[in-house]
Each structure stands twice: as C-alpha cells, then as structure tokens.
Amino acid sequence: MDKIDRKILSLLQRDATMPVAEIGRKVGLSTTPCWRRIQKMEEDGVIQRRVAVLDPAKVNVGVTVFVSVKTNEHNEAWMRKFSGVIDEFPEVVEFYRMSGDVDYLMRVVVPDIGAYDTFYKRLISKINLTDVSSAFAMGQIKYTTALPLDFAIVVDDDK
C-alpha cells in the first residue's frame, strides 16, 4: 500500500459510489490504473465490501443498546455455539469477545424498549448466560464507518 492507495481508500470510505474516473482525478491517476488499484485492494481483502449506510431512525431501529454478557463457559465449543446463536439475531449489529470483567459485548439496534425486551427473552431462551447487562444509548455523539488510515503501513513510494 502506498500514499495513493491510502487516498483512494479515504475517498471510498466517504463515498463508495464515487466514479473511478473522479477518484483517479483526485489522486492523480487515470481511470485504468486507479481501477486496477481498487481491484487489487479488493482481491487482497483491504476492501471487504461496499455498502450503503442507512439512517437507523428512518428504518425504525433508532434505539441502540450495548449489551454486556458474562458467562461461566470459557471453551471453544460454547463460544462457537454462542456465536451461532447471535448470528440468528439481525438486531445484533456488532459482537465482540472482550478482555476484562465482561466476556462479550454486543451493539443491538431496535425500535424501542419493548422490542429490546423481546430480543432479550429470545436470547436467554437460546443460550445460558451468567449475567446480562444492558445500557441504552441516550444519544449518539460520534459514529463513523471510516477507519483511520494514518496507521496503515505505507511502502516508500518515492523509489
């Protein structure tokens, strides 16, 4: 990856629908070399997919809940089972295995508290959890899907 690739990624993170010719113009490349770079980054898995970012309120999932889970089960089989259960819940938009006091953390989006209660009841009916703690977000202060690119390893492209 070089500085031009980072510029391309920055542009795509802001607007994946931007035409390749415009991206090329903004980074100083013609269309074909720019397209080749994008294809290479897709093949290498740097660009995993291109998506549309939706407004949660407009699709009726304006309530965000952070769900902390503790369990007494700490083995590979249980972790795979839990992961499989979570795959059945489209409300879970992020799911992490954590260090520290909490074993797992989920970000859940739902229309309201009642929908969260339904989610919770379905979840605990499918798997045994030691402790589940829910924190409702009162407001969103920052949200982005764009990753910081300052840390990306850049090869010396001045050679």
Automatic annotation (TrEMBL):
**Superkingdom of origin organism:** Bacteria
Signal peptide range: none
Could you state one GO cellular component term attached to this entry? cytosol
The UniProt keyword set, sorted, is: DNA-binding, Transcription, Transcription regulation
- Provide a GO biological process annotation: regulation of DNA-templated transcription
**Which CDD domains is this protein grouped with?**
HTH_ARSR (cd00090)
In this protein, which residues make up the domain named HTH asnC-type? 1-64
Record's SUPFAM superfamilies?
Dimeric alpha+beta barrel, Winged helix' DNA-binding domain
Check the record and name the InterPro entries matching this protein: ArsR-like_HTH, AsnC-type_HTH_dom, Dimeric_a/b-barrel, Tscrpt_reg_AsnC-like, Tscrpt_reg_AsnC/Lrp_C, Tscrpt_reg_HTH_AsnC-type_CS, WH-like_DNA-bd_sf, WH_DNA-bd_sf
Q: Which GO MF terms are attached to this record?
A: sequence-specific DNA binding
Which PANTHER family does the record match to this protein? Answer: DNA-BINDING TRANSCRIPTIONAL ACTIVATOR DECR, LEUCINE-RESPONSIVE REGULATORY PROTEIN
Q: What is this protein called?
A: ArsR family transcriptional regulator
The beginning of the lineage is:
Bacteria, Pseudomonadati, Pseudomonadota, Alphaproteobacteria, Hyphomicrobiales
